């Protein structure tokens, strides 16, 4: 059985808001040095951000043709992240060179097949940190929220997922059809898995790498996010939800297809429901 947050913890206060995108930052001094403007866009620090986790942290970022977005994302990565893994989906633009220019220590790996699921599984296999965080490269997820996820991993939870639907969270990019689909799929997962989650189709998550085998990931597309949650629930991992603000994609078009990918998520939830097939065993000594 999953562990959901008590109400006083689920409303973990959201610490600040992400910096505005450069094109909307109201800069009245266009002749200031670029370095000064970059410094202002560094993540706002919460009071406890100076306390560094004692665990190593890997950030996995799948990307395909995100050269216009990746710089903004990498500029916001907080110092608690030890390793950044960029999983490149055969980009035809300057995604990889741009990432290396922003962060020379980034590890770039090529995904072995098509799809976001394949990209994430490739990144997870390459990660070496004790904690693994996953987020998108399009600027819709603010890296400054990462310390919130690590806080719950440090305090006994195994899998932490962002929620746009609890106090402090929200979305500036959720279309009516996506919102409807998310509510419908959320009702399915809560019914089939006896859960009380508040959000499902949102891929900002963190987990203990020691439970990667328990997550037993096989999906190749966007449904991998639902598969992760389904397997975490089936395996009895301790799950926490933290508030997250979804931002609009900074540039370009999303690869998500709401209807077709929604069907794949639904099929995954039904196929992976408790009793459908045995779940992977949790690592010895972790429970």
Structure overview:
- This protein has helices spanning 7-10, 34-40, 67-75, 95-102, 116-126, 146-154, 176-192, 212-215, 224-234, 258-271, and strands spanning 57-63, 83-88, 107-110, 131-134, 159-163, 170-171, 205-208, 239-243, 245-246.
- By secondary structure, the protein is α/β, with parallel strands linked by helices.
- A 7-stranded mixed β-sheet has the order 3-2-1-4-7-5-8, with helices on both faces.
- Residues 1-16 and 21-48 have low confidence and may be disordered.
Q: Which segments are poorly predicted (pLDDT under 50) over 5 or more consecutive residues? A: 1-16, 21-48
Mean of residue pLDDT values:
82
The tally of strands reads 9
Q: Biggest sheet: strands side by side, in what order?
A: 3-2-1-4-7-5-8
Helix percentage: 25-40%
What does the largest sheet look like?
A: 7 strands, mixed
What is the percentage of strand-forming residues? 5-15%
Structural class: alpha/beta
Order of helices and strands: HHEHEHEHEHEEHEHHEEH
What is the global morphology? globular
Number of helices: 10
């Amino acid at each position: 059985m999953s562990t959901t947050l008590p109400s006083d913890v689920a409303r973990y206060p959201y610490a600040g808001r992400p910096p505005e995108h450069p094109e909307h930052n109201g800069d009245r001094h266009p002749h200031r040095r670029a370095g000064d403007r970059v410094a202002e866009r560094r993540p706002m620090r919460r009071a406890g951000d100076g306390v560094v986790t004692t665990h190593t942290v890997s950030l996995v970022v799948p990307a395909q043709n995100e050269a216009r977005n990746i710089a903004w994302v990498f500029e916001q990565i907080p110092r608690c992240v030890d390793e950044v893994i960029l999983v490149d989906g055969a980009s035809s633009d300057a995604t990889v060179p741009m990432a290396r220019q922003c962060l020379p220590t980034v590890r770039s790996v090529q995904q072995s097949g098509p799809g976001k699921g394949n990209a994430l599984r490739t990144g997870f296999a390459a990660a070496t940190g004790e904690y693994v965080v996953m987020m998108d490269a399009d600027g819709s997820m603010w890296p400054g929220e990462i310390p919130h996820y690590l806080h719950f991993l440090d305090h006994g939870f195994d899998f932490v997922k962002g929620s746009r639907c609890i106090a402090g969270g929200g979305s500036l990019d959720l279309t009516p059809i996506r919102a409807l689909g998310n509510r419908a799929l959320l009702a399915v997962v809560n019914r089939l898995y006896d859960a009380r989650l508040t959000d499902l189709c949102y891929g900002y998550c963190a987990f203990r790498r020691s439970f990667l085998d328990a997550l037993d990931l096989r999906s190749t597309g966007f449904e991998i996010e639902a598969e992760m949650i389904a397997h975490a629930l089936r395996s009895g991992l301790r799950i926490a939800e933290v508030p997250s603000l979804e931002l609009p994609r900074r540039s370009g078009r999303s690869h998500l297809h709401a209807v077709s990918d929604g069907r794949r998520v639904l099929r995954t939830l039904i196929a992976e429901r408790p009793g459908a097939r045995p779940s992977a065993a949790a690592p010895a000594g972790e429970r």
